[in-house]
Design goal:
Layout (H helix, E strand, L loop, with lengths): L4 H19 L8 H26 L1 H31 L4 H32 L3 H18 L12 H9 L12 E4 L2 E4 L1 H24 L6 H13 L1 H8 L9 H17 L8 H22 L1 H5 L2
Antiparallel strand pairs: 1-2
Helix pairs in contact: 2-3, 2-8, 2-9, 3-7, 3-8, 3-9, 3-10, 3-11, 4-7, 4-8, 5-7, 5-10, 6-7, 10-11
Length: about 300
């Protein structure tokens, strides 16, 4: 069933209003208390929207949204591992990190919207492409076990950064929070702009992994898009909330690998073995819960200094 245009308009009015409010906030180092408040707010807003979906489109669509949101939000933690490495590697001051993440998220929303639109059109025309998505997710899950996050902070090898350096003027000076600077009468990109390019390209890589996963839950473009946007909108506050303790999640990537592999198998076996959305959500919740609990227990002594 096609989603009425008014639903799309309503959702985007809400997203743009929140982004506008966040844009004009005073940029500063985000405290743990502030990050906690914003994380709770983002989750509450997402659950509130989920409640509206229940009222508008029924329980099945609401469950699809919630499952997609949980999957995407969980996979966002893997982004945070890399963001921590990027900011520490390039020594980005805390007061600039929020600005980089704001525009990084804004760019991610555009990129993911395009990818979801293309993916939905392909699935509608070539249904067999879901099997390719499934195989890709199984491959990604296996690869994640052996993947090292610090590979993503290779500034010189980043294709988008190399493109910027080849075709655009780059300032060698520290221009503070600005992405553009005027030198000798010409506009140039600043070092912070290159860091933003690294963040954007990193999210694009993660989107290629995460977006196909939601196609295993639903092929409704509205549900896929809104669950992605709600999860991504909460990524910045989640970063500031767990960045200091992200090293404790030592087993989380294995849990995410299992989740991606499970979803891939679900897509590959869909014709012979139906797994409901509720069952998928249960598996995702149990696997992530075990990986997080095991991580906290394993790092408890080192974290407390014992």
């Amino acid at each position: 069933m096609t989603t009425p245009l008014k639903f799309w308009i309503f959702f985007h009015i809400g997203v743009f209003a929140i982004l506008a409010f966040d844009l004009f906030r005073k940029t500063k180092t985000v405290s743990f208390k502030e990050a906690s408040f914003w994380s709770i707010l983002w989750v509450s807003l997402s659950l509130g929207f989920n409640g509206l979906l229940w009222h508008w489109k029924g329980a099945d669509k609401a469950l699809e949204f919630f499952t997609g949101y949980v999957i995407e939000y969980s996979l966002s933690v893997d982004n945070i591992f890399v963001f921590v490495l990027i900011f520490s590697y390039f020594k980005v001051p805390g007061e600039y990190q929020h600005r980089v993440l704001f525009w990084g998220v804004a760019g991610a929303l555009v990129m993911r919207g395009i990818m979801i639109g293309v993916g939905s059109a392909l699935v509608e025309r070539f249904h067999w492409i879901l099997y390719l998505f499934g195989a890709f997710l199984v491959f990604t899950g296996i690869k994640m076990i052996f993947h090292k996050e610090d590979d993503a902070v290779n500034m010189e090898g980043n294709p988008l950064v190399r493109l910027c350096r080849r075709f655009l003027p780059i300032s060698a000076k520290d221009n503070g929070p600005r992405f553009l600077a005027r030198e000798n009468g010409k506009w140039t990109l600043t070092p912070l702009a290159l860091i933003l390019a690294t963040v954007e390209s990193t999210d694009l890589i993660f989107a290629v992994d995460s977006i196909p996963a939601i196609f295993a839950i639903t092929t409704d473009p509205f549900i896929i898009y809104t669950s992605n946007v709600c999860a991504i909108m909460g990524l910045r506050s989640l970063y500031f909330l767990i960045a200091r303790v992200v090293d404790r999640f030592i087993y989380l990537k294995y849990g995410l690998a299992v989740v991606l592999s499970f979803i891939g198998v679900k897509m590959l076996a869909a014709k012979f073995w139906h797994i409901s959305t509720a069952q998928s959500l249960s598996v995702v919740g149990v696997v992530l819960g075990i990986s997080i609990a095991a991580s906290m227990l394993a790092t408890r002594k080192s974290h407390t200094g014992g």
